[in-house]
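Weekend entry, working from home. Most of the wet-lab plans are on hold until the incubator is repaired, so I used the time to fold the two sequences that have been sitting in the queue since the last round of cloning. Logging both here for the record. First:
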Amino acid sequence: MTDYCGSAWGIWDLHVHTPESLNNHYVGKGDPWEAFLNDIESLPVNIKVLGINDYIFINGYRRVLEEKKKGRLANIELILPVIELRVDKFGGTHNHLSKVNYHIVFSNEIDPDVIQQQFLNALPSKYVLLPEYDYIREQGQWGGLTTQQSLEDLGKLIIQSVPEKERDKFNDPLTEGFNNLCFKLDAIQEVLKSPYFKHKVVTGVGKTEWANIKWNDH
């Protein structure tokens, strides 16, 4: 080894949404994936690592890996899968409480199929709905794997549960279903104890909730 450059620094962005995400900025931009790939390839040269975070879905990460194999995203050295879940804990202050968003950053050594099968598919018994709609789950009106179709079905049930004159205040069914879903933190941590994930995950809470916590309240 003849190149002694010392430390090399690179920026990591572990919260990147693809066009597959429920929250993205590529709607109405022609081919959303081409726009997304061009944006990533136009990033400053010191951004080296990305975390693909499409909430509870892994298909966007799969697509990014496929594009990388085809020669796209040559400027990015490492791509990591990230799952973001709303958990049954509150952050913020007494005057402004919000559900905590829990982030799981998986190693790139874990195959997407393993994340789907051993983590995401293990979560259905771990979720609850927000209090005003949890009776839908408790009464057996909704359940199963958290797919886009099942979340859309949940959203329809939620919207149908309110008077018709109030329904225009809601988002589309898929968004409403997703917005009302949360998970038990201790149950998530239990699933992550699987040998499939040992020493291959890092977890953390959302930046906003962390910044708003009143630390002098113990």
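Second, folded right after the first finished:
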Amino acid sequence: IDRIDYSNDTATASPKGSLSSNVENLAATGNASFGYFGGGDADGTPGYSSKIDRVDYSNDTPNASTKGPLNHGRKGHSATGNSNFGYFITGFAPSNSSYIDRADYSNDTATALTRGNNEFAQFGTAATGNKDFGYVGGGSEGAYTHVSRVDYANDNVASINKGNLSSGAYLGAATGNANFGYFGGGQHAPDPTTPESRISRIDYSNDTVVSAIKGPLSSARYQLAATGNANFGYFAGGNPGPSPVVSTIERIDYSNDTATASEKGPLSRTSYLMGASSSRANAI
């Protein structure tokens, strides 16, 4: 686990306590106190992990604590949530799935509950949201530009269709604040070999329209991770395609989001197929 210090984001990210075991292709979300990293492809273990690890932001040097598992083991999924619940959405389990599992932060040793399904069974989605709704964008299976919205107040029904992303991609990343969600990078669909640098912005106050194209990442990549705070979004790591995996971190300034993302201090190592969470993202 690498930690970005938002007050000094030109420095190299600091290694902190590890997850409880090696895993890739996982997803993460959290609240103001904890980050929850769930699912993935367990290193050296057949099948897909359902484990959830919890990072304590107030004491982030010990290894993460194992908590109640997901109801469905999976990889290639996405996650988002609000102050009370974390939602782990879609993924390969062991085929394309529409599962939405909800982790209850007030009872995080229990198995996550299955809620209403996502519209599409797919993998490679990205997700972000605010206190009321989660937005799931991109993904495989012909839904490359599709955006589905999860209503946290009525999460036992299927997610509903909203305005599409401005361009198709999967295996991208997303983050945002109270007003907007930013979806960046990914593999350009329907061409599975071309990485994407485009950023699409969803306006939560008008989410039925196609998302707006904003300043791109400075480099195209997929299999990256993203999180942020109220003012900035950070897109980290990833795979540029034929080039080696990178440690790059790029920052989007929400107050000037037509500009190209600026490169900041790197991760401590090259990495891809990660999850990312922050106590300040998604209007928390």
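Plan for Monday: verify the second prediction. Residues 38 and 105 are 13 Å apart (CA to CA).
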